[in-house]
Design a protein that fits this description.
The protein is about 40% helix and about 25% strand. The chain has a four-stranded antiparallel beta sheet, with helices on both faces. The chain contains five helices and four strands. The protein has about 150 residues and is an alpha+beta fold. The chain has one domain: Transposase IS200-like (Alpha-Beta Plaits, 2-Layer Sandwich), CATH 3.30.70.1290.
Length: about 150
């Protein structure tokens, strides 16, 4: 049996970065994301976020791809949010996301960063954070509505 440990830091936002994930709603959503992921054999080490986005630290298994995991997490959670009427308007995730690898030595730093999202976003917006991540990891900055 192959032994694999690949850590990924995933980040995605609500459609048009709408602030749908209020404090009460986001805790329900994050709990659901964890439970749903567990059922689908997706290992989520840590999940948190703020009003308009989610950070997730995951470990990939041998037969998992980032795109499939993101599809399973985002698609199912949006369906669940709408089914349970957690938002007044129809809830959607933004189509884009980004994912970067995390070394074993960097896990605690990423966990702390994800854990402290509420504090972190008192100082900077998600858009500022997004731009910093894009620059830090050499991604092209994409400005789109979908």
């Amino acid at each position: 049996m192959p032994m694999i440990k690949i850590w990924i830091h995933l980040v995605w936002s609500t459609k048009n970065r709408a602030p749908f994930l209020t404090k009460d709603i986001r805790q329900k959503v994050f709990t659901h994301i964890r439970e749903n992921a567990k059922e689908k054999k997706i290992h989520i080490d840590f999940v948190n976020g703020y009003v308009d986005h989610v950070h997730c630290l995951i470990s990939l298994e041998q037969d998992q791809t980032i795109s499939k995991i993101v599809q399973l997490i985002k698609g199912e959670s949006a369906f669940w949010i709408n089914k349970n009427n957690l938002c007044k308007d129809k809830f959607e995730w933004q189509g884009e996301y980004f994912a970067v690898s995390v070394s074993e030595s960097g896990l605690n730093k990423v966990r702390d960063y994800i854990r402290n999202q509420e504090i972190h976003h008192k100082k900077k917006t998600f858009l500022q954070e997004y731009d910093e991540f894009m620059e830090k990891y050499g991604f092209e900055i994409i400005r789109s509505s979908g």
